[in-house]
């Protein structure tokens, strides 16, 4: 913005006004061995991090007035106050990529001496003026859930979406004596600019306490705002209605100001925060450690007449400041000054909880007669920012105005300061203190977003100076010297990155002190008063580069060196507004190196040889800068962006202009190739390839863009000739002179050229088309224009046929330009450096967005044309396929570069997948539509199907090629399904596609599974055995079929047995993943029996013996399943899979005598480990079985009635003890594992430790069934009967287990 030409500013440090590049790494230049440079005193530092251990710059952490006035450079250079805290340095080292993203945002608080920076998702707060406080940096994690809206969460990496304000809590008197007292307690309030969400840290410096209090955007809101009159709700007038206009004007709803204040006498760590939206809304937040409340401040907006300087709502908020310092509250109230689009409002804010707000007075700035007189002739005025001095009575306003030069009809911007004084506080009798102070009389035209990003700071030295901070990171100090305005631009030799904020040194008295600036890469620096005075220059004029000045004459030697360039250097001064501005004000050795490159190149063009060019350039430091900051890359850019030296007569699209442009493009191609040859002969190419890959890549991309621009020009000529009238048709010669006034490509060229002219007033006299074809390095703007204005270029009001022609022309232009660049890359591949981590220009987001816009327009127009003009559909689809191919290749290149740089790529990958599937599906659907239409009147089904496949085979090859390159699995599968071509499907499955997203074979398996084509799925097992086995790990109910098919009987046996014993999952416990991958099939008892018999068959087929361990285990499971079936028929248990423990417990509780006996059968079939781990349950089961018979009553009855021995024997035989003994201990007993006798003998007499080693030796466990029954209550009376019943059962041979036939069980 504040960007004068370099020649006028001289060579002194700080004389220039170009800003440092935010995206360029800071590099400390090496001193020249032939000439002493003050830069050499600074030492060397890491190219990425100037604060690394190699840097000898020592931070001045304890600041005093004496230190500021006595420096090693006599006050002519900025002074390093403090480096970044160690925590912030570590964050930069861990995430260096964020240093060039919108991921760094910061600010300074002049009163507390605190600085803060948001890096990624963390907020760092520290004191830049106190050494001890510097070591205690507070690192706060930003809650990422705060900006949630409609189920989405904003990415906290975009730090410009947050407003931050620091709250210094009152503290006791400090005992240390220093110029600046450390802030020991402070709170932080953050507010999201879009959602009004708030995060509040009550005390960031409290040890171990970084608790955050939050308030989401959807929480309760108290209070309402006054309605806005309809006449004030219209959209504000832009600087231009064209593409160059702003997209974020005053009618937006972003927060642009945040103020905080301590509540005096209130609760501990309680504060009030006031925020202002750009649409004029005011909101109040009451913050305390217990919570946050939000309330909208009612602000009445009355309709006001147009003052002649603006045409939009004058109530829109611009800036907001407290009128008086925080230590001067008046009865719990503070005054707030609100700057709107036209006025200055003063509000009283009650600081108590839920305090009221009332407007005190309003002053119409733009309606003031004196202001209108000063701004006479200005077409439009923007009030940008407001600052108040410490007394609270002097108000300084930064404003910008738009005007036109009547002589040459060129447009420019003017930046000024207005100062007002309240003559009767607090009633608001505001008068102007001084005339309008013009800071920059003629600057280039900026978009409104750039204007609104400017901030103003006052209060530093020299007295009356002001700092203007621009959104691009420039900091300019304006002051008056000898009645003339001077400007000083802050910059460091090695590049400090953006200036994030500026403040003044806190003083104990109300006096002006030196300026402090917080930089993006180099910490906090102080700017001494002498540095500002010595480095200040007069504001540059618009025509500076067109005519010489006295200052230019003093730099005659330097200008003479620059004139040796092979291309016109004045063209660089007029065109070079896109290169990072730090490149315009470079250290002296950069100028020398650039001059040497130009001189050597000129020598090569004249003689064809170079003399020790590499050594000279290395000594001059030409290989130190990266990417576009590199000297060689800048020279290459000058070659491709040079304007013609003389004006070309003719109107827009005239043959003379276009012929000159075409010849100039060819000449630039020839000159750029000569430049490459020069780099090769001078051995610079090898050096750049190895050590400066980014710079060499930028040089080669200039050649690519030249080739693309030539292709666009050739296409332009072809389209113009096609639209030219037939010879003799028209009689007017003028009609044939301007034949290119129509066409999508021509309209896009004019739009891009117009934007370039508006951004650089020095190009206002050039033709739009000439500017477009000249600015080769900015070819991405063509795609940006397509993305933003593609719809209007196509012309939705035109007939469908015209829209299709224009859209196809735009698609051809976009794709042919990129293909020409790729052809250049292929033909010049030996010149390129290693591509790892480098993103080609045609893979950048701007280009991808433009291509996607074209593809979206084709899809929309195809849907419309298929109804109205079907004949246009094939042409549209043909170009859609071309655009799809180029677009998907661009996404693949961008993702590859991110992966190689180890950057986060998943968001881009998801976008790539979504758009890939959308485009490929549309192309595939079109093929099916064409095939279906071709058989519409064929009645024979066989012939129709054959013809349909024939049509599809002709249409699908190109689509298959694209889908194969980009892993379009869905499209490939659908194509093979349409063609019913299993051979082609197998061929595609064999290819190694999908490195990160799964192989194609897995996708095919999943599709077959979802459509329940199980037989087709299993047929792939023999050819894709490993892949199918991996897929079936999540589908067990199909895996055993695959294993039997592959004759893996042992594995199939295990799978079937496991599947039969897997319980059905309850409805409430099934996860989403289980529902998707394992459909719930109720595992009924009969189904389990079938699976178990299949498992037994598999085991036998696999070579297992009938009495082997595996077969015996399966037989035991079959027996338990049969027992459960009996219990299920009695409605005692469910048919789901139950464990042996669950069955036994249910049987014992049922009261059914038969089930009590079967509980012991479950014990028998459950195995040794189960019986050992549940011994107490077994003992309880024996006692429960004894309880089922009335032993005491049986004894009494037998004695009374005189039972015979046979009757007594039959009665004992019917007891449960006898039945259990027969089933578990007889010769015919069935069990799994060791016999019951080995585990728990019936009688104490049977127990011998030598013969029964498995009997547990425990002091508490019973050693036999007899010992267990001795615990029964009736054993004393009927113990002999119980033992007799056991003996009858174990000796009984009548009990015989019913054998189950295998075949009937299988059939059932």
Automatic annotation (TrEMBL):
Matching Gene3D superfamilies: 1.20.58.1380, YVTN repeat-like/Quinoprotein amine dehydrogenase (2.130.10.10)
UniProt keyword terms in alphabetical order: Nucleus, Transport
Region: Disordered, residue numbers: 1-78, 218-248, 538-567
Compositionally biased region (Basic and acidic residues): 539-562
Keyword ATP-binding in annotation: no
Recorded GO CC terms: nuclear pore
UniProt biased composition (Polar residues): 52-72
Pfam families per record: Nucleoporin_N
Domain of life: Eukaryota
Listed InterPro entries: Nucleoporin_Nup133/Nup155_N, Nup133-like, WD40/YVTN_repeat-like_dom_sf
Similarity annotation: Belongs to the nucleoporin Nup133 family.
Protein name: Nucleoporin Nup133/Nup155-like N-terminal domain-containing protein
Source species: Riccia sorocarpa
Taxonomic lineage of the native organism: Eukaryota, Viridiplantae, Streptophyta, Embryophyta, Marchantiophyta
């Amino acid at each position: 913005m504040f960007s004068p030409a370099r020649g006028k500013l001289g060579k002194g440090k700080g004389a220039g006004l170009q800003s440092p590049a935010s995206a360029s790494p800071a590099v400390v230049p090496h001193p020249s061995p032939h000439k002493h440079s003050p830069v050499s005193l600074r030492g060397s530092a890491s190219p990425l991090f100037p604060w690394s251990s190699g840097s000898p710059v020592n931070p001045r952490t304890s600041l005093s007035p004496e230190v500021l006035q006595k420096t090693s450079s006599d006050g002519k250079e900025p002074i390093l106050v403090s480096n970044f805290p160690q925590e912030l340095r570590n964050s930069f080292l861990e995430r260096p990529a964020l240093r060039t993203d919108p991921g760094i945002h910061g600010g300074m608080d002049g009163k507390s001496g605190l600085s803060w920076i948001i890096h990624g998702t963390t907020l760092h707060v520290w004191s830049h003026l106190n050494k001890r406080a510097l070591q205690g940096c507070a690192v706060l994690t930003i809650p990422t859930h705060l900006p949630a809206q409609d189920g989405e969460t904003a990415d906290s990496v975009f730090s410009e979406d947050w407003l931050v304000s620091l709250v210094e809590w009152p503290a006791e008197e400090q005992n240390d004596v220093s110029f600046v007292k450390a802030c020991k307690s402070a709170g932080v309030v953050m507010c999201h600019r879009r959602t009004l969400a708030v995060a509040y840290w009550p005390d960031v410096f409290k040890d171990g306490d970084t608790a955050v209090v939050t308030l989401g955007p959807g929480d309760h809101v108290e209070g309402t705002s006054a309605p806005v009159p309809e006449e004030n709700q219209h959209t504000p007038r832009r600087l231009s209605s064209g593409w160059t206009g702003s997209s974020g004007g005053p009618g937006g709803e972003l927060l642009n100001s945040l103020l905080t204040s301590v509540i005096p006498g209130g609760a501990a760590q309680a504060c009030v925060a006031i925020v202002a939206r750009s649409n004029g809304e005011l909101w109040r937040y009451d913050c305390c450690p217990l919570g946050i409340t939000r309330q909208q401040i009612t602000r009445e907006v009355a309709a006001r007449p147009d003052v002649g300087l603006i045409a939009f709502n004058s109530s829109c908020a611009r800036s907001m400041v407290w009128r008086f310092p925080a230590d001067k509250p008046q009865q719990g109230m503070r005054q707030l000054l609100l700057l709107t689009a036209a006025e200055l409002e003063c509000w009283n804010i009650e600081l108590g909880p839920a305090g009221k707000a009332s407007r005190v007075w309003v002053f119409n700035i733009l309606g003031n007669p004196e202001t209108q007189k000063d701004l006479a002739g200005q077409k439009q005025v923007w009030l940008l920012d407001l600052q108040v001095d410490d007394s609270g009575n002097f108000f300084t306003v930064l404003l910008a105005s738009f005007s036109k030069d009547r002589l040459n009809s060129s447009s420019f911007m003017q930046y000024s300061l207005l100062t007002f004084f309240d003559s009767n506080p607090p009633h608001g009798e505001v008068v102007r203190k001084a005339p309008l102070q013009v800071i920059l009389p003629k600057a280039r035209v900026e978009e409104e977003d750039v204007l609104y990003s400017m901030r103003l700071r006052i209060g530093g030295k020299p007295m009356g100076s002001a700092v203007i901070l621009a959104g691009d990171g420039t900091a300019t100090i304006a002051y008056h010297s000898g009645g003339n305005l001077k400007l000083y631009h802050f910059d460091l030799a090695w590049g400090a990155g953006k200036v994030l904020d500026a403040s003044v040194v806190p003083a104990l008295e109300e006096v002006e002190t030196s300026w402090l600036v917080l930089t993006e890469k180099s910490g906090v620096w102080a700017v001494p008063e002498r540095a500002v005075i010595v480095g200040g220059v007069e504001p540059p004029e618009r025509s500076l580069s067109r005519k010489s000045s006295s200052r230019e004459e003093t730099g005659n030697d330097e200008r003479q060196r620059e004139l040796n360039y092979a291309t016109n250097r004045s063209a660089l001064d007029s065109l070079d507004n896109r290169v990072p501005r730090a490149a315009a004000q470079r250290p002296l050795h950069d100028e020398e190196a650039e001059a040497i490159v130009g001189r050597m190149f000129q020598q090569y063009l004249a003689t064809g040889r170079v003399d020790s060019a590499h050594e000279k350039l290395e000594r001059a430091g030409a290989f130190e800068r990266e990417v576009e900051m590199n000297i060689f890359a800048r020279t290459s850019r000058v070659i491709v962006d040079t304007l013609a030296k003389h004006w070309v007569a003719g109107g827009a699209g005239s043959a003379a202009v276009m012929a000159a442009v075409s010849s100039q493009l060819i000449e630039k191609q020839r000159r750029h190739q000569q430049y490459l040859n020069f780099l090769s002969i001078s051995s610079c190419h090898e050096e750049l390839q190895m050590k400066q890959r980014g710079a060499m890549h930028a040089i080669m991309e200039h050649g690519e863009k030249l080739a693309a621009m030539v292709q666009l020009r050739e296409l332009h000529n072809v389209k113009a000739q096609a639209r030219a009238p037939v010879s003799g048709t028209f009689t007017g010669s003028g009609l044939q002179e301007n034949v290119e006034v129509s066409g999508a490509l021509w309209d896009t060229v004019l739009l891009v050229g117009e934007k370039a002219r508006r951004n650089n007033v020095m190009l206002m006299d050039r033709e739009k088309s000439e500017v477009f074809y000249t600015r080769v390095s900015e070819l991405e703007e063509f795609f940006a224009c397509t993305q933003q204005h593609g719809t209007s270029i196509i012309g939705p009001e035109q007939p469908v046929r015209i829209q299709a022609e224009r859209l196809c022309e735009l698609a051809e232009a976009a794709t042919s330009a990129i293909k020409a660049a790729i052809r250049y890359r292929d033909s010049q591949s030996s010149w390129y450096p290693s591509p790892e981590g480098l993103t080609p220009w045609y893979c950048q987001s701007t280009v991808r967005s433009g291509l996607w816009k074209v593809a979206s327009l084709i899809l929309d127009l195809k849907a419309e044309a298929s109804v109205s003009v079907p004949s246009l559909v094939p042409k549209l689809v043909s170009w859609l396929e071309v655009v799809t191919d180029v677009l998907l290749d661009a996404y693949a290149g961008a993702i590859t570069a991110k992966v190689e740089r180890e950057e986060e790529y998943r968001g881009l990958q998801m976008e790539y997948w979504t758009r890939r599937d959308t485009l490929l599906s549309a192309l595939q659907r079109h093929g099916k539509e064409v095939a279906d239409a071709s058989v519409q009147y064929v009645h024979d089904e066989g012939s129709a199907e054959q013809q349909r496949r024939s049509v599809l085979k002709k249409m699908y090859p190109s689509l298959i090629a694209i889908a194969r390159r980009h892993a379009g699995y869905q499209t490939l599968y659908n194509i093979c399904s349409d063609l019913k071509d299993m051979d082609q499907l197998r061929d595609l499955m064999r290819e190694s596609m999908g490195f990160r997203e799964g192989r194609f074979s897995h996708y095919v398996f999943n599709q077959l599974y979802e459509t329940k084509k199980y037989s087709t799925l299993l047929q792939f097992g023999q050819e894709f055995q490993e892949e199918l086995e991996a897929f079936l790990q999540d589908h067990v109910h199909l895996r055993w079929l695959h294993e039997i098919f592959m004759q893996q009987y042992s594995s199939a046996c295990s799978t079937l047995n496991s599947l039969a014993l897997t319980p059905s999952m309850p409805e409430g416990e099934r996860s989403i993943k289980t529902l998707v991958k394992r459909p719930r099939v109720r595992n009924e008892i009969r189904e389990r029996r079938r699976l178990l018999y299949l498992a037994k068959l598999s085991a036998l087929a696999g070579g297992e013996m009938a009495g082997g361990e595996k077969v015996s285990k399966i037989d035991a499971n079959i027996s338990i399943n049969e027992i459960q079936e009996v219990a299920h028929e009695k409605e005692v248990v469910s048919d789901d899979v139950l464990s042996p423990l669950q069955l036994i417990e249910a049987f014992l509780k049922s009261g059914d005598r038969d089930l009590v006996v079967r509980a012991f059968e479950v014990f028998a079939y459950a195995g040794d480990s189960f019986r050992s781990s549940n011994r107490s349950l077994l003992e309880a089961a024996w006692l429960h079985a004894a309880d089922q018979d009335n032993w005491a009553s049986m004894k009494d009855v037998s004695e009374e009635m005189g039972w015979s021995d046979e009757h007594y024997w039959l009665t004992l035989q019917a007891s449960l003890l006898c039945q259990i003994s027969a089933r578990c201990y007889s010769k015919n007993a069935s069990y799994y594992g060791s016999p019951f006798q080995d585990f728990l003998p019936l009688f104490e007499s049977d127990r011998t430790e030598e013969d029964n080693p498995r009997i547990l030796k425990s002091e508490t466990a019973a050693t036999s069934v007899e010992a267990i029954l001795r615990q029964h209550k009736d054993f004393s009376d009927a113990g002999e009967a119980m033992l007799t019943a056991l003996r009858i059962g174990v000796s009984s041979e009548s009990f015989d287990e019913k054998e189950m036939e295998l075949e009937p069980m299988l059939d059932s």
